[in-house]
Automatic annotation (TrEMBL):
This is Glucose-1-phosphate adenylyltransferase. Belongs to the bacterial/plant glucose-1-phosphate adenylyltransferase family. GO terms for biological process: glycogen biosynthetic process. Residues 8-258 form the Nucleotidyl transferase domain. One of its GO terms (molecular function) is glucose-1-phosphate adenylyltransferase activity. Residues 285-355 form the Glucose-1-phosphate adenylyltransferase/Bifunctional protein GlmU-like C-terminal hexapeptide domain. It comes from Arthrobacter saudimassiliensis. InterPro entries: ADP-Glc_PPase, GlmU/GlgC-like_hexapep, NTP_transferase_dom, Nucleotide-diphossugar_trans, Trimer_LpxA-like_sf. Keywords: Glycogen biosynthesis, Nucleotidyltransferase, Transferase. CDD domains: ADP_Glucose_PP.
Amino acid sequence: MRTPRILSIILAGGSGGRLGSLTDHRAKPAMPVAGSYNLIDIALSNLHNSGFGDVWIVEQYQPKSLNDQLVSGRPWDLDRTNGGLRVLPPFQGGEGEGFAEGNADALHRQADYIREFDPDLVLVLSADHLYSLDYRDVVETHREAGADLTVVTNRIRNNPSQHGVVEVEGGRVTGFEYKPEEPKTDLVAAEVFLYDAAVLLETMDALAAEHGQLEDYGDQLVPWLVEHRTVAEHRLEGYWRDMGTPASYHEAHMDLLEGRGLNFDDPRWPILSASPRRLPGFVGEQAEVRTSLLAPGSRVDGTLIRSVVGPGTVIEAGAQVDSCVLLDNVMVPSGARLRNLVVDSGVEVPADAVIDGAGGEAGIGVLDRSGDVERS
């Protein structure tokens, strides 16, 4: 059987509003994760490890913050003469011009480029999640089912109403509701979709003609295909985490520290990154460090418990940090006490500040660059 021609598209243009001030100055896929990586590294590493070499990234919001991480695709072997990485920003002049109003609209605006590439299958990914997946297995599921669309799914412990909720029977998707108030199952779409290219293009054109414009995939595109076409399920049984809110972002890092999160250091399935080379994290003589991750370029002279420290971040002697995620170039001076926080890049914590983010509904706060604390 002929190997299908596969085009992979990462939709990375959303503003990430649910993350609040953390995405005021960066695209969500450029968010730091695990100290030494960025969210975009997850999707790109899964593609690299799966052997998929034609990758397009659709940008819109804060593109420079994302382009700084991509470096022409070199860490993922995508800096090629033929194929490799292609970045698609918004444009003017021609079909598909302007700014997208949702992820399905963003995909439809690339329809002419997709036709020109002429793939058999289109793999569409979000860059907002932590997971490990061999996309070749998804292709196999798709071919065996004779599917027009294959949806990767995962069971989650809480808040399925924040996702596309899926009903399945015998490996086929029989129902799909996008962010329903009363979800019928705890099975959700993991934001990985494999489409038959011809069906995708035909359906997008027809729905855009009928509705005027597509919006998010869950509004028209996926529900229509579930009702009228063959949609298969591919179950992701391992770890999957949506990083769309400060609470989920913080919890994913606590999962990592407790050994139940994504394995970033699996030699059989490495997470690759364009992170700069820096001196390993430094722990001073008077420091107390427990159950924490220190990125290269960081320095700890104070007390650090159950936390993740980004590059260039300094925790001075006499400072205390507990259950926090400190992004890059944060300064925590002597006397400051931080707990249950995500601290944004470049924040200089006030001397003798005592801040606990646990006052919000989710028990987590964000200390932003203005010095304010957002509690979710």
